[in-house]
Amino acid sequence: MELNLKLNRRTIRIGAALLALAGGAAWLVGGSHAEQAAPAAAVSRPALTVRTTTLRDDKWSRSLGANGSILPWQEAVISAQLQGLRIAEVKVSIGDHVRQGDVLLTLDNFARPGTVSAVASEVQGRIVAPDDGVISSVSANAGSTAQPGVELFRMIRKGRLEWRAEMTAEELMLLRKGMSAEVTVGEDRIVKGTVRAISPSVDAKTRYGYALISLPDNSGIIAGAYARGTFDISGGKHGLATLPQSAVMRRGNLAYVLVLGADSHVHERPVEIGLRSGDRIEIKKGLKSNEQVVEGGGPFLSEGDAVQVVK
Q: Under a CB-based contact definition with an 8 Å cutoff, are residues 193 and 163 in contact?
């Protein structure tokens, strides 16, 4: 009787163990099916609805901006050569246009008529313009005594003005003599000019040098005026491939786009970027002309995500 009871208890324990194993096996099988079904569901559900775009052929000009002042091309300082002669009459004022040889002032003649010194004094008793130009400064006054080497007039030779553009060394190295420039003076007046000279060095303290731009059409412009301008450093418009800036993303120093694969999954593609203009950016390398890339929403996508494209 006691033996039978022990056997029955052993049988119950074995049966319970088998049931526990069977339940565990069933749980394992069930878990395996769930894990296999989950990726299938994820693959079939697009991560995001997107629009796509391709490279577009554009023509842009590359420009460089700078600021600076309007200055005379050259200024002539005019003074007397004789000592002790009184200024009789000043014939010009600031802003006057003069031609070479025009009389600027006359000096009193102290020699007696008919003498050699009188003839010489008549020749030397006036001061004339050494060149065509515009009188920019007058220091001479009738009745005062002219002294050798003391400035009486200052004249802008030929009336020519130029723009002195302050620029860094890196910017100056992009310029060439003869390059075109557009200079904005005053209330949005635009004057076209050309690069005449480029400084071969920069100031050690400010780290700036300068370029001098000739301004053929300078009527009405005042020397000393502040101006801003741009240089065409591309020699005209040149062709390039561009994308909307929204299609290009950055990760550190790396620029990349999301290329749409044949299976509607996106893949990251590094690209080399260049110029920007408005909402467009130049793509130099890394993308073919017919490849579809995600136009917007890239930051919400990751490598391998499935997408649905809308037209």
A: yes
